Amino acid sequence: MKLKVTVNQIPYEVEVEVDETPASLPPVYIGAGPGGPATAAPKAPVGGHGVTAPLAGSVRKILVEVGMSVHAGDVVAVLEAMKMETEITSPVSGKVSKILVEVGAAVQGGDQIIDIT
Predict the structure, then answer these.
(1) Measured between alpha carbons, how far apart are the two ends of the chain, in Å?
(2) Which residues, other chains included, contact 4 with Cβ-Cβ below 8 Å and sequence gap of 6+?
(3) What confidence tens digit (pLDDT) does each residue in 2-51 have?
(4) How many domains does the chain have?
(5) Of 22, 15, 11, 5, nearest to 110 (Cα)?
(6) Quick check: 107 pLDDT over 90?
(7) Could you tell me the residue range of the domain that residue 64 belongs to?
């Protein structure tokens, strides 16, 4: 499995071998951040093209605003999981129509976090 990780704001691509199937691994629970209790993002697509969380974690940064134009591949948010940051990129070019999470929100892999039309 290939992952992109950022350490001290330097991106690295790493390859990880997993001896166990993901179903046999214990669940990971993310607690509330310093801003109070975290809220979960919706799973169902809102409309347009959804930017989804690739893994469970906590929303660390949101780098876009509603109405902002983005290009495919632009970093739109950063998730933190197990003290590691993961940059989330836009799959398409367009305008940000909705931001569905707040900084500190807990998300699961596959949750939509931003809508782009």
Answers:
(1) 30
(2) 11, 12, 13, 14, 86, 87
(3) 778 888 778 888 887 766 555 555 555 444 444 444 444 444 445 568 89
(4) 1
(5) 22
(6) yes
(7) 42-117
Domain at 62, CATH number: 2.40.50.100
Q: What is the pLDDT of residues 47-102, one digit of tens each?
A: 568 899 999 999 999 999 999 999 999 999 999 999 999 999 999 999 999 999 99
4 domain residue, yes or no: no
Rounded Cα distance between 14 and 20, Å, is 18
For 105, the token pair is 């929100």
Quick check: is 88 in a domain?
yes
19 located within any domain: no
Give the number of other Cβ atoms within 10 Å of residue 77's Cβ.
Answer: 23
Give the rounded distance of the alpha carbon of 116 from its chain centre: 15
Q: Is residue 2 part of a domain?
A: no
Q: Please, what sign has the CA dihedral across residues 35, 43, 84, 59?
A: negative
